[in-house]
Amino acid sequence: MKTIIGMAKINWRHSKVAYRIAGITLVMGFVQYIIELTVNPPDNEILAVGNYLYLLPLCMGVFVAALNFPKLMNLGGKRMDFFKSGIVTYVPAAAAVGLVSMLTYFTIDMWMLANTRIAGTLDLYDVFGFMGHGAIAAFFQMTALMLLVASAAHTLTLIQGRWYGWVTNAVIIAVISVFTPIAPLRAALAWFFDMIIFHDLAVVQISSCLIISIVVYGASIIPIKSRQI
Questions:
Q1: Burial tier of 43 (Cβ tally within 10 Å: 0-12, 13-18, 19+)
Q2: How confident is the model over 47-99, as pLDDT tens digits?
Q3: SS3 of residue 121 by DSSP
Q4: Continuous H helices in the chain
Q5: pTM for the whole thing?
Q6: How far apart are CA 212 and CA 1, in angstroms?
Q7: Pair 51, 25: CB distance under 8 Å
Q8: In angstroms, rounded to a whole number, what is the distance separating the alpha carbons of residues 69 and 229?
C-alpha cells in the first residue's frame, strides 16, 4: 500500500503540465470577468470561473498515463502498483476540483451577482442541474463526473498506438457521427448522457458515473500490462 500511495504522490507532484493548463485557463477566466465588468455592457451572462478547473482531471488523466507511466516503469515501478495508484491519484483530484469550483460558486460568483450588473454566471453546477439536489449532493455528483472524465482520459491515452486503441477511436467517431443524425440512436445517446449527467435522481447519476469509471479504468489494465516501455 505504501508503494501505491508513493506512486500517487509522484503523480500529484509530476502533473505540473496539467496544473499549468488549468492555472492558465483559470487566470483567463478572471481576465474574462474583468473584461465583462469594464468593457462589455451590463446584463450579460458570463462563464463562471470555476468551470475552468474542470480541465484539471482531464489533463491529469492524459499526462499521468502519457508521461508518468513510462517514467515510473523505467525507475523500476511495478505495473500493478501503477494501475492501483492511478485511481488513488484521480479520486482526490476530482474531489478537490469539485470542492474548489463549488467554493467559487458560492463566493466569487455570488458576490458578482450581488454587487455587479451582470445577469448571471454559467456554472456547470447549474447547467447540469446538480445544485437542484442541494450543495452536498451536487459536490458528490460533480466529483463522480470528474472521476469518470479522468478515468476515460487515462484509459484512452494508454490504449493509443494499440490495435484496440484504433478500434476504440473508430467506435467513438462512429457513435458521434452516426448516432447524431439517426433519431433512435440519438435518443439512446441522449439517454446515456442523461444517466451520467442530467438524471433527476442524484444517486442514479452518481452511481452511473462510479460504475462506468470502474469499468473504464479497469480496462486500462490491458495496456498497462502489455505496453512496451
A1: exposed
A2: 889 999 999 999 999 999 999 999 888 888 899 999 999 999 999 999 999 99
A3: strand
A4: 2-13, 16-38, 55-63, 69-74, 79-104, 110-115, 124-127, 135-158, 163-179, 183-193, 202-218, 221-226
A5: 0.92
A6: 25
A7: no
A8: 9
Q: Break the chain into its structural domains and give their ranges.
A: 2-226
User: What is the number of residues in the chain?
Assistant: 229
**Phi, psi for residue 125 in degrees, rounded to 5:** -60, -35
Could you tell me which of 125, 112, 122 has the C-alpha nearest to residue 34? 112
Which residues touch 46 (CB under 8 Å, ≥6 apart)?
Answer: 32, 33, 36, 118, 120, 121, 122
Model confidence at 24: pLDDT above 80: yes
The rounded distance, in Å, linking the Cα atoms of 122 and 46 is 6
Q: How far is CA 153 from CA 54, 62, 86, 144, 219, in A?
A: 13, 5, 12, 14, 12
CA distances from 190 to 54, 125, 155, 206 (A): 22, 19, 23, 17
